[in-house]
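Hey team,

Filing this mostly as a record. A colleague (T.K.) asked me to run one chain through the structure pipeline before their review meeting, and I want the input and output archived in the tracker in case anyone asks later how it was produced. No errors, nothing strange. Just documentation.

Input sequence:
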Amino acid sequence: MSGERGPQVLLLTAGPLDGPETPGTDLARELLGTVPHVEYAWFRRWWGRVRRAGEVPGGQGVSVISREGAPSPAVRLQILTAAVLSARRTDLVHAVLPVGPGFAAFSRMWPRVAGRRPVLHTVPAAVEGADLADCRPLGRTVALSEATARQLMEAGFGDVRVVNPSIRLDLWPLRRRQERTPPMVLAIGDGGTEEAMLSAGVAARAGARFQLVLALTGDGPGAAASRPPEDLLRGIAAREGLLDMEVLRHIGDLPGLLAAADVLLYVPRRMTGRADVPPMVLRALATGRPAILSDLPEFAGLSDTVLRTPPADPHHTGHLLRQLLDRPWWWDRIAERGRATVAGRFGPDRCAAAYTRLYRELLS
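Output structure:
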């Protein structure tokens, strides 16, 4: 790994890395900027509207024809064809792919068409149990949480390692809490929009005063179709007494938005198909913003870094939100704990060391 030429690794994802953020592409982008002494090949769009500022760092881009970059069937077929050809010219294939409805067929087909190159498979999102039927491991498997690792091992994936996702703290520095009235509650709407609004309504009726900002910006499969229409959201807001609410369907300045927020609220009922630890949660904790999350198995690794609440319990969540907004000393304690935990458990050095060891094991 430290010789003249690093290993050549094909980073296999369901969509191009310069397209919309999905659990797989977001994690793969972090790997490109984190793991040293590796020559990565990754998939990019050949043409189309640029969706993000800057360029994916490092490595060699393998182009696929895609205007929007979404992992459509046509784009996946192109990536599969290019991956089969590229795999034979690399030392290792690192697949960053969720285990979804089509994974069983892919897992049986891959070794027949791509040869016997070693494969490391990182599962970037929580798994639906039914999707594991007839699946075969692609090679050594990595999960992002103990809950997903146990699920995969029970399905016959062998000894599944757990490697926490990473976040670059230099890109998400600690920010002082802004003195603003009313405070801002930033809610992630990916799967928990109505739960967040109902919880905010409970907090408002209990006397809390705040602005609710709903971020409905997820780019995962089916995300656009699952976003509630504006009139439905406004109807819920009126019924719950949420007089100060803003809906964001695009975020232009995410660091600025997190700096302006006081609390991050993310209360989905389940995490299937979503990143075990969403990047937005790590970014908020790194910035020094307390987070209230559903008490789901995937979040267990965050332990007491965040405040956890029973899923689908707006009454409990709302009163927890009111208490956090009303107690500055508690806010400070949770914010400090979150930043320290992210630095200690989710720093890029730990992630790089873990994947470097795995690459060495597979290439030895």
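Quick notes for T.K.: Residues 12 and 95 are 4 Å apart (CA to CA). Residues 184-345 form a domain with the Rossmann fold fold (CATH 3.40.50.2000).
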